[in-house]
Amino acid sequence: MKLTTLTAAITLMATSVFGQGIKLAHDGPPDMEQFGSYVWGHTFATYLNDHGMAVEEFQRGALGGEAERLDQVSQGLLQVSMSAVKAAGSLDKLVYGVYLPYLFTSTEQLDSALYENGMLARINEGTTPKGVRVLGFYHLGLPAGVFNTKHPVATVDDMSDLRLRALDEFQISLFDAWGASGTIISWPEVTNALQTGVADGYVGPPLMPLIFGQTEILSDYTDARVAMSVRVAIASEDWYQGLSDEERATVGAAVDAANAANREWVGKREGILQALAGAGVTVTTPTPEALAEFSARAHSVYADGPMNADQVAEWLAAAGQ
Predict the structure, then answer these.
(1) pTM attached to this predicted model
(2) Domains and CATH numbers, the chain
(3) What contacts 30, CB < 8 A, 6 or more positions away?
């Protein structure tokens, strides 16, 4: 058993003995100003605490990494986890639709697909039989752009000499379509990869290098608005099914409050590009024509992603395309 897994298990056993409240695992620093994940999670926990459902918040890493927390949630040992989309995607690939490049142009459009056009319910049809309920998605800031350590990128042609850190094989296909190359690297290894030249950059929200101290390594940012920068709040289905109707209603209201707080936080992020420039990173905004080329090439690789054609079609319909 890994040390992190053992430590997490001991922590969970201890909290089970000394308290029967709801455990919520955060995935980022306790910062309501800078980290959208904490805005969602802390607002959710505060609402439940204020309405008679006791919640204990655990900071990043206290209950293990992504895989450990997913396992704990599916077994009912951990009630709520702030997690990577990939965690839920390992249970049902339909969830990956939130990451399709250039499918969504705003938080409102994504929320409409999820909450009005039924995609959250469809995702839960696949995840809840495996012990995990997706409560909602939260934003980490503005849509993701392209960071690199070499030079400004204004067009697809400027990508040809870049090797970017990739999340998965689908992102490598995307980079290939742009004329760049990719290499899969876990996030904890990214800073070292940038410093050593293993990778020349990555796709992510503009806030990331400010949080993780990478502004002295990265020289350029392209506001390409590739995809929504989101993660997912997951809950134990065993825990959820054990709630009374009144408690489920309270959880639902807590989700609504957390969503609203996170979206309000996102609305105040426009100044982040100025902050990035102020930290010494050159910010490039592509022309509409250049963005159209980025988008067209991205759409051409949808079939290379983890979802099948029917699942992609569902997301396209839900997005109004």
Answers:
(1) 0.88
(2) 3-139+230-266 (3.40.190.170), 145-227+270-318 (3.40.190.170)
(3) 38, 42, 59
